[in-house]
Amino acid sequence: MKSFLRVVKWVGLTLVVLVVGFVAFVYARANRTYDAPYPDLAASQDSTLIERGRYLATGPAHCVDCHTPTSEVERLAAGEDVPMSGGFDFVLPIGTIYAPNITPDPETGIGAYTDGELARALRYGVKRDGRPLLDFMPFYDLSDYDLTAVISYLRASEPVQNERPAHEFNFMGNMVRALGMVKPMGDGDVPPAPAIDTTAAYGEYLARTVANCRGCHSERDLRTGAYVGPEYAGQMEFEGMEGGYFVTPNLTPDPETGRIANWSQDQFVQRLRSGVGLPGSPMPWGPFSRMSDTELIALFKFFSTLDPVRAEKPIPVGLQGAS
């Protein structure tokens, strides 16, 4: 009996040591830093470039949708230009993420960042202090022209002083960071952007690199951000902004489960122009409704070229589905 108790004691002590050691490892490595090059890009005062950046940030790239204060949502929906002084709080399994102030205020915004630091953050997902950004802004393959345009617009926008909280990671959040599950994403190998026209090639650039249709319309693991389902087949689950439950639609041309498979090009353009269908929808309808006909047609043509995927997740009774 004594030897059995002795074994239990040592097993217990060993488990305690392992747990304490793992916890210490997590908190020691949670804020690990990474290195990445600084793209040789600089903000411009060229009005054409600034306007392109404004169009991207308030339209297809929908920066305004996350970085605009919740108190300004109605102005944003009305098509007004609203300073991106900090926006939504995202409550996730890994903790609470606060969309930061990205106006050029030197104290609470990005005014103290160099152009190279901003370009590195967007192209490689590495913050000014070397810590990795969460994969909320997958602009890693944004063309040099468009990346310069966005930075130029941010520099030219109105500075607003608004201190935002630091992200609050729970133990799971610190664990995934310590284990390298949150890490730089961009490899710097940026293909040339296709010409701005109505082709499927330009539509793919928009869907994958600018508008991030892929990020929401593909099933992902919310703990790590990893893709776990076919691209553009939908099935990603979201809580609505006003409650409710949404499942992103399948955008592939599957005739039975593809949401837009039987739509005409004109129907697609009109739907994107018409705005929110269900209250609280997480889709950035406002910014997307500002996209040009050229880009909406390009998106439709690209979605039409995808391989059909049969994918339809049942929606629980009494809850909403994505529009």
Structure overview:
This protein is mainly alpha-helical and 323 residues long. It has two domains: 132 residues, no CATH class; 106 residues, Cytochrome Bc1 Complex, Chain D, domain 2 (Orthogonal Bundle). The protein is 38% helix and 5% strand. The strands form two sheets. The chain has a three-stranded antiparallel sheet. Strand 4 and strand 5 form a beta hairpin. The radius of gyration is 22 Å and the shape is globular. The protein starts with a helix and ends in an 18-residue tail after the last helix. 33% of the residues are buried. The C terminus is likely disordered.
SSE order and pairing:
Layout: H1 2-29, H2 47-58, H3 63-67, H4 73-77, E1 89-92, E2 95-98, H5 115-124, H6 144-156, E3 168-169, H7 171-178, H8 200-210, H9 213-216, E4 237-239, E5 245-247, H10 265-274, H11 285-289, H12 293-305
Helix pairs in contact: 1-7, 2-6, 8-12, 10-12
Short description:
The chain is mainly alpha-helical and 323 residues long. The chain is 38% helix and 5% strand.
The H/E string reads HHHHEEHHEHHHEEHHH
Number of helices: 12
Instruction: Order the strands across the largest sheet as they lie in space.
Output: 1-2-3
> Which stretches are poorly predicted, pLDDT < 50 over at least 5 residues?
315-323
Q: What is the makeup of the main sheet?
A: 3 strands, antiparallel
Mean pLDDT: 86
Shape: globular
Distance from first to last alpha carbon = 66 Å
CA radius of gyration: 22 Å
Strand content: under 5%
Counting structural domains, the number is: 2
Helix content: 25-40%
Number of strands: 5
The secondary-structure class comes to mainly alpha
